Amino acid sequence: MSIIVPSVIWLKIWKRTLPQSGVFLSQPAHSIYSKTKEWPQDSTLEILQEVERHWNNVVTKPQKSTNSRKHVDELGKKYVLAMFPYPSGELHMGHVRVYTISDSLARYYRALGYQVIHPIGWDAFGLPAENAAIERNVSPSQWTDHNIEHMRQQLCQLGCHFDWDREVRTCDPQYYRWTQEIFLRLFKAGLAYRKQAFVNWDPVDQTVLADEQVDDKGRAWRSGAKVERRLLNQWYIQCTRLSALLQDGLDSPQLQDWRNIVTQQRQWIGRCDGFVAMMNVNCNSQATGGARETLDGSSVPVYTRLPELLCGISFLGVRSDHELALAEGSPLTVQYTKTLTTCDASTSSDIKCSFRVSRVTVTNPLSGATIPIIVSDELPFHPGRCEFYVGYGAGSELDAGICKAGDFQVVDVLQGHTFKYIQEQTNASVLSDLEGVNKHNRLIDHVIRSTIGDGLNPDVTENASHNFKAEQISEMSEINHPLLPRSENSHTQVELSFDPNLHNSSELTGLSCSAARVKVLQLLEQRGAGGFPASAHLKDWLISRQRSWGAPIPVVHCPSCGSVPVPSCELPVLLPCHRPDMPQPHASLRSIPAFTACNCPQCGGAAERETDTMDTFVDSSWYFLRYLDPGNAEAPFQRALVDAAMPVDVYVGGEEHAVLHLYYARFMQLFLHSQGLTSHSEPFTRLLLVGRIKAPAYVRVSDGKYLRPDDVDCSVSPPVERGTGAPVKVMVEKMSKSKHNGVAPSAVMAEFSCDATRLAVLREEAPANNRTWRQQESFFPVMRWIFVLWKTVGKFVHMRQTKEAQQSAGVEAAEEVLRGHRNRAVQEVTRHYADHQQHTAVRKLETFTRHIRSAPLTAMYGAEYERSLAALLLMLAPIMPHLVAEMWLAFSHHAHLPHYKSEDVHEQPWPEVDHDYQPCYRVYVTVNDDHVYKGDMSIASLEALQWQEDRLLQELTQEHQALQVAMAGQPVLRSTFTLSDEECSVKLVVYTLDDEQLVAKKKRDKQAKKLLKAQRLKENSAKTKPKS
Ligand SMILES: [Zn+2]
């Protein structure tokens, strides 16, 4: 018998107690159970807020896992990681969603008895703080600290329990010192390099702008000046070097939960079916500009599928928007333009290719020959985003024509066979695309084998590639081996059907193509000029930012020694704002002579410090490792600590980071692994990428302007603008200030309490789905349920305080029913938590609440009722930590069973299914596409029916009238039977109609539905019409 709570009642109570403003402004009334030992009748806002004030310290203080039934060691650790926020100063609803999800998971795992790591920190570098600091004339460091303080309070108010002793902030010199150290390691491994790239340059502010700081008209957001495209020397991290390994790592069974993210990453990386040859850029003397901004000395990665033909390259082609093609204001000038007409043998049509020859050239890394560069958009570039067209004068008629027109040297390295060889290779790779196996991939496998296997003990070497995937690499990582080493005797054989010998090819001369490919990759590797597999379109990671609020790149430019890394013992290279002796704040470090002037660590001469800072993606590519050893002053982290806690078990964050951040983090983990600093090559096991929160936004139809909700009259349909009556369109869009559709979490919590906000955020949608925030609609069921829970506990307390009722007949049967509900709820809710589907867990708990409330009065005195109520509260505690803590306190004071006497719900173990409980299967029957039956059946009954669909159907039809009606005595035409052990369900789909009848039936059903809907609408509008 359930107690029906009319929504009107609680709404009235609610309204009566609504405070005027501010969440914690109302005076404490000392009316809650924790203080008075009296259970208040209603859960008013004031009461809920007092409960939250009372319990907040307890709920957010560090707790240990206390599952007495299992040893922590036996269960192990759970590393629950939420993406750390940028300290903007205010939490937004997206944060609330992410941190509520991670907090509820961490609490769930803790209750299960795991040793849970649930850290938090701050992605604290970046432009907004820098700009705010300049505007307010404060230091970005002070500004950031202030924001962090405020957001920390908000996170605590939200009831999130983090390991605050692990807190890191990336702008802390004790953090960025190690970011710099990691950069030095990349530099020493040859994975950090400098080359020219375009930037947006503001000529008034003399600074570089991010793309989003340039408006549609190409003007700077602050100065309003016309932004110039300018070439600057930029630092890159050569992540393409590991791209084949990162691509390969996506096959790891460890990432099976990544689902579509694996596909996204795969596409991002691309097929690693070619190789990189780094080529040095040369400018002639006239072309050389200022000392810093020249192309001289930089190198460019050239992708080629045929590295064995390296000496046969006659020219490289680039598109007109490429850095090397820059015309205006650059050292490059047009020498001449020619139109070439040639005849393609296969299509017999004219190919025109107009091009100009750049003054810039590159050097062939093998032969040392100069390779000209031509600029043309008409070249047949490799599909995808490949930067370079590789031209072989002997390779095709087009290339030959271009060589003739441009007067380029043609080296036929295969003595008349180049054309045929390239064709065969192209065809082979097309074929292999179809077959899914190709020689390149086999070669890559060899390369990886030799890479990982080199210098290791023979057992490991033999199966190195396999071991790499299988995560058994831990023993070998003890050796601090250089990245991608190549052994002299490692055989990377490639079988080619057509395998001619090479001529005029420097060290490759006389080798067959297959042997030459192996050799050239080795040579390139030895010379630090590439030689590794890569995809055609993946680019290296540009990490330079010309800003002052980021980790300085620890390099010194010396006129005689070139780019020299700052010695590790001199780190950190401190930012001016962390040094009282320097002026601040500034947009660029370049304008601070005290910062730039230094001595060369190598020769001691006067040198200039690098003024670029690192992209914040570098900071965030390894923060999850620093959490595990945040105070370490000797190293970024201690390997043993990291090995024990990694990989991350669940990574919760915004879906927008699916590609970039996750790719960089995977790259960094793999790099640190290759340096012998960690055992694990993949950082994250499971991903829980959280969808966006959207909300209705109002757009004026006439000009597309976003209006404030207050300015819109929604009482008419369609809505109109107040005052003008202009028609307004309602659009559901991502929350944003500019669209006036954002809600501040602090305001929501003030109106509905923090736990209700947590519940509302989790309840409606699966974490991965986008959701639309409709405040009143979302909170109505939430507040009603809280009200019912409050009443339920109140009733329990009241019943136990009064005299115990006599056991009456029928109680045992009622207890048995309740026991079934409890076991089923525990089984299902646990599974939903484990699957990170808190919204279905919540729905199940709502149903379970109804089952508990429908127990007869006399059953409330029994042990089963107590067990059921305990299970409900325990499973709710991760979601509503404050409220359930209060409810549990009262419950524990009146519980009879000894193990419920503990007062702190967050110290309690997770409820378990009774050992003698036979789990039921949920049985669904669909007849002619109508859901006809849903019920439970014990395993014993299903076994008695031998799990046979016809016997099951017969049994159910005999017992249930709805099924008899649906079957209407018709024979079964066809049926399907699905058994899911994971979900403990049996699905039976039955058809008694043929396809034609089925279509006719669907049509009838659709019409009937339409009619019903229309009728309901009519009834509703009649009800809501004001009485006049
Ligand atoms: Zn020097």
UniProtKB/TrEMBL annotation:
EC number(s) stated in the UniProt entry for this protein: 6.1.1.4
A GO term from the CC aspect: mitochondrion
Keyword tRNA-binding attached: no
Aminoacyl-tRNA synthetase class Ia domain mapped to chain residues: 76-246, 538-694
Keyword terms of this UniProt record: Aminoacyl-tRNA synthetase, ATP-binding, Ligase, Nucleotide-binding, Protein biosynthesis
GO biological process per UniProt: leucyl-tRNA aminoacylation; mitochondrial translation
One Gene Ontology term of the molecular function aspect: ATP binding
Catalytic activity, reaction form: tRNA(Leu) + L-leucine + ATP = L-leucyl-tRNA(Leu) + AMP + diphosphate
Residue ranges crossing the lipid bilayer per the database entry: none
KW Ligase (keyword) present: yes
Main EC class the enzyme belongs to: ligase
Domain Methionyl/Valyl/Leucyl/Isoleucyl-tRNA synthetase anticodon-binding: 821-918
Family to which this protein belongs: Belongs to the class-I aminoacyl-tRNA synthetase family.
Name of the protein this chain belongs to: leucine--tRNA ligase
Organism this protein belongs to: Hyalella azteca (Amphipod)
